[in-house]
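Standup notes, protein team

Yesterday: finished cleaning the Shewanella pneumatophori set.
Today: Erythronate-4-phosphate dehydrogenase structure.
Blockers: none.

Input for Erythronate-4-phosphate dehydrogenase:
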Amino acid sequence: MKILADENMPYVQQLFADFGRIETVNGRKLTAEQVQDADVLLVRSVTRVNPELLALNSKLKFVGSATIGTDHIDQEYLASRNVPFSNAPGCNATAVGEFAFIAMLELAQRFNSPLKGKVVGIVGAGNTGTAVAKCLEAYGIEVLLCDPLLQQSGDRREFVSLDSLIEKSDVISLHVPITKQGEHKTWYLFDEQRLNSLKQNTWLLNCCRGEVIDNRALIKFKQQRDDVKVVLDVWEGEPNPMAELVPYIEFCTPHIAGYSLEGKARGTYMLYQQLAKVLNLTADKQMDSLLPNLWSEQLSVAEMSNERALLQLARFVYDLRDDDELFRKQFLNPQGFDQMRKNHTHRREFSALKVGNTGQTDVNWLSNLGFSGVEL
Ligand SMILES: NC(=O)C1=CN([C@@H]2O[C@H](COP(=O)(O)OP(=O)(O)OC[C@H]3O[C@@H](n4cnc5c(N)ncnc54)[C@H](O)[C@@H]3O)[C@@H](O)[C@H]2O)C=CC1
Ligand SMILES: O=C(O)C(=O)[C@H](O)COP(=O)(O)O
């Protein structure tokens, strides 16, 4: 069996070698010729799986995408050909949640305006949105959720409309899939009009898909509204973000919000389990065996009384400023965006770090934030 896999998918050899012969490829440049004799195709978000890509293949038994998003997959077409498909829902949700939380702490530090006391609106309350909410609520931040689809489906949490969220929130974090049709479509959800409705000093973060914000409108908006601060992990027209937009953005990253080691491993592992199920193969490998040990270091936090201390702890795990600096230097280079993604040093999730308390202050809430708590 020939397994064609994106070269940026970790642990493919460890997990899939028993199932067949693995060939790795550049997912962005994948061609129909390369795919023609594959039995299994394992992709990431940069590969458009559509009739053109599969035109020469008549033996495909499974397509897997190690991602949460599925906008790059023509699922109707796969179904019409009876090719089973699976993505990896939730695989990197914790990574995205922690990324957005860290970005908010960085904004707070940069603008000397504490996160504590602000109201954060989350648009899209699925896996990633809920992961952000978890971090924020652990820190005692008021969270508003907007998700009309979940609301209609009977989700028992409290929801607000998007207009109300915009009106009441100091910070807005976007966590929706990209959809082009229907009552709740998200393509250009934040268009010129909606951007203009943001209240003074709003912070806007996009960690879902670039086209949820009209990036041209955002340039125009930022030219008038320096009070609004923006963090972008995703960009309209990736891998070529609009160069004029970058100077207006506080923290720029190349679509790596979900790039924790755990998140990527989980994505590959979920496909391993799905393929085994579809082809009736034995999946006896464990995900934990893939990951390096937790940090041997245990950080002792005598007290966590101010936001600066929390930011220091977060920076120990992931320093967003490094990715931002690299982005500004490299995004205009040919292949710059994809190179940064390919060479990204996968950060660990909060859970990889044990936090102990030698002081009197109660820091147990750090466990709720995701750190491995240790009582001392
Ligand atoms: N930057 C990155 O590295 C990553 C980006 N993503 C992107 O984030 C998206 C969301 O991921 P998850 O939260 O895991 O997906 P999910 O499917 O668990 O949740 C998305 C939620 O958005 C809601 N939604 C859809 N349209 C909406 C609208 N118009 N207004 C408000 N809510 C709406 C849905 O009802 C759903 O509950 C993915 O589809 C993917 O495109 C996901 C992982 C990593
Ligand atoms: O899971 C998703 O959806 C994402 O956006 C991924 O984190 C993006 O990573 P790649 O698949 O493009 O490596």
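Follow-up from PR in the comments: The longest strand covers residues 2-6.
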